[in-house]
Task: inverse folding
């Protein structure tokens, strides 16, 4: 993953955090926080593939 991609996802995470703080609707806050976490995880993990469990 390029540095541009990582910075994009980090920026989106920050934007979602601001949106979560700006709204009074609890369901909207929850949605923004879930999006924030997804963007942040993508920025931190990048292209790494999670371990596949073999059963």
Result:
């Amino acid at each position: 993953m390029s540095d541009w991609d990582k910075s994009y996802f980090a920026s989106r995470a920050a934007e979602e955090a601001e949106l979560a703080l700006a709204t009074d609707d609890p369901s909207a806050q929850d949605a923004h926080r879930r999006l924030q976490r997804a963007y942040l995880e993508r920025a931190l993990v990048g292209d790494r593939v999670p371990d596949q469990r073999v059963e």
Q: What stands out?
A: The CA atoms of residues 20 and 33 lie 6 Å apart. The chain has two helices and no strands.
